[in-house]
Amino acid sequence: MMAYNHENYISKAIEGVLMQKTNFGFEIVIGEDCSTDKTREIILSYKKTYPGKFKLILHEKNVGAMANQNAVFSACTGKYIAMCEGDDYWTDPYKLQKQVDFLEASTDYGMVCTDYNKLYMSNGLISKNSFKLQKYKDEVKFKDYIIDRSTIGTATVMFATHLYDSYLRDIPKEVLESFNVGDTPLWLYIMLNSRVGVLSDVTAMYLINLQSASKFVNPHDHYSFVTKGFKVPEYFLSIYNGHLKDELRTKLEKRKQLSTLHYAFKVKDKKLFLDSFRQIKKQDRTIKIMLWRVGLITNFAHNIVNFILKIYKSI
Q: Is 222 helix (H, G, I), strand (E, B) or coil?
């Protein structure tokens, strides 16, 4: 568990772990990244109440999300690691048991995730069954996730510790430090070296907070984050030797252009919009389907989409 300024959520996150019913022992490793609120105080009170159950990493200065996560992973000594950040929480008391049972019975799988619900903090609404079970019914495969990269709920994941150890050995340090996210590269690495199973059970609540690292109000900041995020799939595609490599590279390039199209529309950059649109037109004729897939129809008014389609026909 990684925690920073989570005083309003951390108790629920910890309670979700403490309620787990298992036939094996587990420890709770928390990296507290020098919060400015009462997060550390709350965590220390739990350690006092449950002696021997917690292993705390209390940073003396703020090290950032990536370094904090690495410190937590490195401190884990169990056969498996399950994640739950300090502003999410588990809802199923048998989550850990179900996932360990799966991994123990399926030795060709190195990771397992589950379905989950989303809680939108701005209005309190809950979106149920947020995992794309129709697409990833039993397994999440590299060829699909390298394009999607947003479906797996971090709070639902359990993976074999030895795969994380080999991840650190195999991926150059400078490459790891260039990534702006910490979980997706690990998932892609595991998919290249093992299999990722899916359980249909809802086991966690994922909190959507506009102040989180990947949620930006400013479109320029959001586009910068998204653009840097493409370094992750581009790197793993470069080390992928499957027969789908060229096809995946084309799909990835389409995603990049669609991200630029979305950004250009939001900031009203007509030249950038038309340039990216021309690139998309060269790559794929099914423009309406692509617009739907990236959510432009839901984010933009329908008349805007019709306008886009008219432009498409004219260039």
A: helix
Q: Name the helix (H) or strand (E) containing 73.
A: helix 65-75
Give the span between the Cα atoms of 269 and 203, in whole angstroms: 42
Output b/e per residue, 184-213; b: 16+ Cβ within 10 A.
Answer: bbbbbbbbbebbbbbbebbbbbbbeeeeee
Strand order in the sheet with 28-32: 2-3, 28-32, 54-58
DSSP state of 156: G
Q: What is the mean pLDDT of the chain?
A: 88
What letter would DSSP give residue 21? Answer: -
The first and second tokens of residue 13, run together, are 């996150």
* ∠ Cα 165 171 176 (to 5°): 100
When mean pLDDT is compared across 112-121, 238-247, 257-266, 289-298, the lowest value belongs to 289-298
> Mind listing the pLDDT tens digit for each residue in 42-59?
999 999 999 999 999 999
Q: What is the DSSP letter of 295?
A: T
pLDDT in tens, 152-173: 999 999 999 999 999 999 999 9
Helix, coil or strand: residue 264: helix
Beta bridge partners of 54: 28
d(CA 258, CA 277): 8
